[in-house]
Amino acid sequence: MSYSTNTPPPQRRWAALVVLLVAEAINLIDATIMTVAAPVIRAGLGGPASSIQWFSAAYTLPFAVLLITGGRLGDIVGRRRVFRLGMAGFVLSSLGCALAPSTAALIALRAVQGAAAALIIPQTIGMIRAMFTGPALARAMGTIGPVMGFAAVTGPVVGGALTQADVLGFSWRVVFLVNVPLGAAVLAATPLLHEDRAELRPRLDHAGTALAVLGSSLLVYPLIQGGAHGWPGWCSAMLAVGGAVLAGFAAHQQRRARSGRSPLIEPGLFVDRGFTAALVSSVLFFSVVGGLMLVAVLQMQLGLHRDVLSAGYTLLPWSATMALSSWVAGAWLVPRYGARVMSVGLLALLAGVVSAAAVYATSPPASYPWLLLPALAVAGIGQGLYAVPFFTTALHRVRPHETGSAAGLLNAVQQLGSTLGVALFGSLFFHAAAPGDPTPAAAALTGARNAFCLAAALILAAAVTTAMMLPRRRPSPTSPDQPFVPDATAR
């Protein structure tokens, strides 16, 4: 239950919805812009090749591990208040990123951006649900998908165009500056938003949050830095310690739940094998999606020395078909075929990834791989077809009182999967060149081919865990295997 104040009149609710959608779009555009701009940023600021991965991972890691805590803060002190705090932090950290004098400073500020996003995103769905009811709620929630699809399509192109244009000599810095006026406009419009908080306020789990941050960081750091140092023994040790810390986090959550205090994650969620399989599937799937987009950009810019705009256009087939197939899946396919659409999505994703690997294996090192574009388009179709029914299926056996915790955990794990994908596939790209590769272009092709081959193996693993998610009985027209609108972070 929630307690609400300052309910806006009906004519203002749709204006408030626009404010929330703009905030969501800024977050997604920022993430996709960074994918294409990262090599240019590293060229400008210097630093090791691993900096390219950290520009993304430093944002998505705190976003992932603080997402649930951000939602709890909204329950406790009010969602509009936390939304304002997060947006102010996002604007200021974006300005700091634009002015960053060094690679280390930019990475630190990206982490602040990610933490601010973790305060913003959980509040949007809560405020939408507080402002709308009945058919109006369905219409309001239905606007999220198209807006996020548009942001996903425009992000890489806008990032490439802004960086390439070198506006006022700012080069890559303008990709962060663009957040400032947009974020300031959102802040100015927050009086339109509906204040809402939980009637029964949960308590923050400070120890659990610290364990989640520490454990996740201990997994990501060696995956990014290890390859640059020849995978020394400390990498394995750090991964083992990270796994132990996360196991300690799980035990802490169980103890907290038994003592009657609010855990970050409801332990009862893991009683159902299907939900546990969904978490593993999310890590596998989103690590592939997040990691391969970065690899495609790296091969373009570092291997072929193409400009950032060319890299953005290379990702356009993937983003465009993902947006289109998500709309088709949500509007027609999932209502009719339910969870079975996921299998078609994985098959299309696998076909696109294998085709892309073949293109990288056979293309001349110095030539633009034109056949890569249809392969990436097929992969985008697979992503859209899988992601929409995935969240429906993952939540269909969750008990009503666990839905909020389950949705927050799924979205956090999605972001963590993207972080791990950037770390894993980026390191494989940089350090998997064959000894006989005579040029950087040939080495880039080898790294990209190896990354896409590994992705194919992970997709097959995701197919196994996805099968464990599927209902054991044939879904009926009245079954819970119906379209579900996930949190806006599910992309």
What does this structure look like?
The chain has 491 residues and is mainly α. The chain has 16 helices and two strands. Helix 9 (206-225) runs antiparallel to helix 10. The chain is globular, with a radius of gyration of 22 Å. The protein starts with a strand and ends in a 22-residue tail after the last helix. Residues 474-491 have low confidence and may be disordered.
Shape: globular
Measured by DSSP, the beta-strand proportion falls in under 5%
Which percent range fits the helix content? over 70%
Radius of gyration: 22 Å
Coarse structural class: mainly alpha
Biggest sheet: strands side by side, in what order? 1-2
Largest sheet: 2 strands, antiparallel
Low-confidence parts, pLDDT < 50 over ≥5 residues? 474-491
What is the H/E order?
EHHHHHHHHEHHHHHHHH
How many strand units? 2
What is the topology?
Blueprint (H helix, E strand, L loop, with lengths): L1 E4 L4 H36 L4 H28 L1 H20 L4 H29 L2 H9 L1 H22 L8 H4 L1 H10 L6 E4 L7 H20 L7 H26 L14 H31 L4 H30 L2 H23 L9 H24 L7 H29 L8 H30 L22
Antiparallel strand pairs: 1-2
Helix pairs in contact: 1-2, 1-4, 1-6, 1-8, 1-11, 1-12, 2-3, 2-4, 2-9, 2-15, 3-4, 3-8, 6-12, 9-10, 9-15, 11-12, 11-14, 11-15, 11-16, 12-14, 13-14, 13-16, 15-16
Which key features would you list for this structure?
two-stranded antiparallel sheet, disordered C terminus, mainly alpha, 2 strands, 491 residues
Please sum up the structure shown:
The protein is an all-alpha fold and about 500 residues long. The chain is about 75% helix and about 0% strand. The chain contains 16 helices and two strands.
